Amino acid sequence: MLSQVYCSGSQPFRQRLLPWVQSTALSRSHRVQPSAIRHVRSWSNIPFITVPLNRTHGKSFAHRSELKHAKRIVVKLGSAVVTRGDECGLALGRLASIVEQVSVLQNQGREMMLVTSGAVAFGKQRLRHEILLSQSVRQALHSGQNQLKEMAIPVLEARACAAAGQSGLMALYEAMFTQYSICAAQILVTNLDFHDEQKRRNLNGTLHELLRMNIVPIVNTNDAVVPPAEPNSDLQGVNVISVKDNDSLAARLAVEMKTDLLIVLSDVEGLFDSPPGSDDAKLIDIFYPGDQQSVTFGTKSRVGMGGMEAKVKAALWALQGGTSVVIANGTHPKVSGHVITDIVEGKKVGTFFSEVKPAGPTVEQQGEMARSGGRMLATLEPEQRAEIIHHLADLLTDQRDEILLANKKDLEEAEGRLAGPLLKRLNLSTSKLNSLAIGLRQIAASSQDSVGRVLRRTRIAKNLELEQVTVPIGVLLVIFESRPDCLPQVAALAIASGNGLLLKGGKEATHSNRILHLLAQEALSIHGVKEAIQLVNTREEVEDLCRLDKMIDLIIPRGSSQLVRDIQKAAKGIPVMGHSEGICHMYVDSEASVDKVTRLVRDSKCEYPAACNALETLLIHRDLLRTPLFDQIIDMLRVEQVKIHAGPKFASYLTFSPSEVKSLRTEYGDLELCIEVVDSVQEAIDHIHKYGSSHTDVIVTENEKTAEFFLQHVDSACVFWNASTRFSDGYRFGLGAEVGISTSRIHARGPVGLEGLLTTKWLLRGQDHVVSDFSEHGSLKYLHENLPVPQRNTN
């Protein structure tokens, strides 16, 4: 076996070796002990924290979410990843990004190994340069002048290119890893090194020793001397594999070193069910042994020795040996900068090879079922959709005992893990179920003419009529936390609007959500559309769901402001309906009624402080300071045990003030309230526009002119006069229920009920009409006459 070790880093080797020796808690068994979970190392110029990586090798990971526990990882860089598009030279920016990711994982306490191509391409670049330089010198000497003739570049032999490129490739890796204070070592192997028992033991020992010393081994086939691959029965079993390309080398190395994870980077996103680029090609998220017959392999990449078929065979061989495998794209500029770390974090990237098939459908299959089921649902008669909702309402009361029993299990499991407000949201009761049933019947009554309602009719020309009609949005993804009562509400709204629905509930409500979903599907079954509503029970991360832009048309988050912000950030190409914050204001005008103010403030702040429509900032007109009205407000808040935070102006009026607010843009979600002083209604409006969240804002006054000025000038989704902020709710608005409150300015705003889940399409009915007939010299003229619209049934 030919091997070289290059140690990079500016520190003397002895000085750099000491931390490695001290860190041998990683040990030859390559498992971190529990006591080392939060151990912070400082030898690197980039501080990092080791992660819990306790796992006994022997069986591959069953789910992507388990990949974060991978301790020993092999990253295979294909030729298409390492080389430039012209196949002559290296993609330096891409390589730098890969080295950075490998370094980050190494600095987390993992053991990283690289199997890299690139020596041939790097050597080809060097040899072509030398040949051109040599030819130009000879021509200049021969002709005696500087004008050179066009020179032909001979075909370069791959082994010579590899010999010329190996040292340069390693020097490049050495320089890059040095930036992260990481030492790298090069090991060149051939097939014989695995088949000769002595050489195999030597290779194994060398790799283990390098890993023990926290060095990243960089492994490559010794292409300068490697013989052509011999035909044999390789990839047939764990003990038989021929190292004939870097795919098979990476698989053999992964199994030999008992690696937890093998990441194969190529120039395609992963494995497709048909050749990538074809119209029907779909990326396969999880690939199982035995699925090969359902896959059509395309041609191999533009460079390199193997194609996708070789990668799949190598991946399955490694999987059989106990190593998990992911094949992903390492060349895409938008993802290559974090593809390796994303895979290790368990994100849905590339194709994951697993031996464990899930019991139910994948989330992609659920999305397709929701799409087809939703389209069938939309074709039902309004009475049929209403019948489904009425049946679901009946089931909520008829199956009350089973629902409450499941909810009791959730509450028992959540005890001590969830905060009080979340436990309150999780709790279901008989009164809640009765209220839900009433709300569902309201939705059923209002859904009679929701889908297919004509909004506009226009006669374009004689016998050419245009209609604009309401239609479902498509497939909705609703993500909710600790709110099992949300499930039947959203299900009823989806049914009434003819939308397919994917539901992702919090794990704290697993039992409640399961039975409520079963009841929803039971109701849907009476008209054969059971699959229109799907509950996602797989281990899909929310961020992964937000990337399914080809399956989901609208995301609706129901939960904390942090959840909404995370989803808005993660959503790629899918609109998100919701609000990230509920910073609701109440302005108490100088002409406010003493009797009304304390009732409105108490109800808005204290009735349910965790709600998004609870009062967070109280603006008081300056003239009310040191008046009986102001004293009544403060006394009431003290009785209700509300903690007061003083705004800057309010604090300046007081000798001994409450704690000054840290930010005027705060959603407390608890019995806490900010009080600030303003000089006028205009100043109150300016404050709301600067610090509010465009959710719900209220004025308390007896002056109608002032109130109307406030109502017209405050730019929020809900603006009230002498009413509690808590009225900002779909049920209280008479919508039956809501999917959420939107502060968006596009489509739906405020409490979003049935109307907010519809969009429109245009229907044009003609008789052999063509546009050319309406040209300057055509026979027809546009009429554009408005036609009467059928009256809506409001009963």
UniProtKB/TrEMBL annotation:
**What taxonomic ancestry is recorded?**
Eukaryota, Metazoa, Chordata, Craniata, Vertebrata
EC number(s) from the headed UniProt entry: 2.7.2.11, 1.2.1.41
- Residue ranges occupied by any Aspartate/glutamate/uridylate kinase domain in the UniProt entry: 71-329
Give the source species: Neomonachus schauinslandi
- A single GO cellular-component term on record: mitochondrial matrix
Per UniProt, subunit arrangement is: Can form homodimers/multimers.
In the UniProt record, does the keyword Ribosomal protein occur? no
What are the protein's GO molecular function terms? Answer: ATP binding; glutamate 5-kinase activity; glutamate-5-semialdehyde dehydrogenase activity
- Record-linked SUPFAM superfamilies: ALDH-like (SSF53720), Carbamate kinase-like (SSF53633)
Pathway note: Amino-acid biosynthesis; L-proline biosynthesis; L-glutamate 5-semialdehyde from L-glutamate: step 1/2; Amino-acid biosynthesis; L-proline biosynthesis; L-glutamate 5-semialdehyde from L-glutamate: step 2/2
Q: Name one Pfam family in it.
A: AA_kinase
Spell out the subcellular localization from the entry: Mitochondrion matrix
Which controlled-vocabulary keywords does the entry list? Amino-acid biosynthesis, ATP-binding, Kinase, Mitochondrion, Multifunctional enzyme, NADP, Nucleotide-binding, Oxidoreductase, Proline biosynthesis, Transferase
Enumerate the PROSITE patterns for this protein: GLUTAMATE_5_KINASE, PROA
Question: Mind telling me what this protein is named?
Answer: Delta-1-pyrroline-5-carboxylate synthase
Give the gene symbol. ALDH18A1
Similarity section:
In the N-terminal section; belongs to the glutamate 5-kinase family.
Note the HAMAP family from the entry. ProA (MF_00412), ProB (MF_00456)
Q: What does this protein do?
A: Bifunctional enzyme that converts glutamate to glutamate 5-semialdehyde, an intermediate in the biosynthesis of proline, ornithine and arginine.
Annotated Aldehyde dehydrogenase domain ranges read: 364-625
- Catalytic activity entry: L-glutamate 5-semialdehyde + phosphate + NADP(+) = L-glutamyl 5-phosphate + NADPH + H(+); L-glutamate + ATP = L-glutamyl 5-phosphate + ADP
InterPro entries per the UniProt record, alphabetical: AceGlu_kinase-like_sf, Ald_DH/histidinol_DH, Ald_DH_C, Ald_DH_N, Aldehyde_DH_dom, Asp/Glu/Uridylate_kinase, G-glutamylP_reductase_CS, G5K_ProBA
- Record's Gene3D superfamilies? Acetylglutamate kinase-like, Aldehyde Dehydrogenase, Chain A, domain 1, Aldehyde Dehydrogenase, Chain A, domain 2
Main subcellular location = mitochondrion
Biological processes per GO annotation:
L-proline biosynthetic process
User: Does the keyword Nucleotide-binding feature in the UniProt annotation?
Assistant: yes
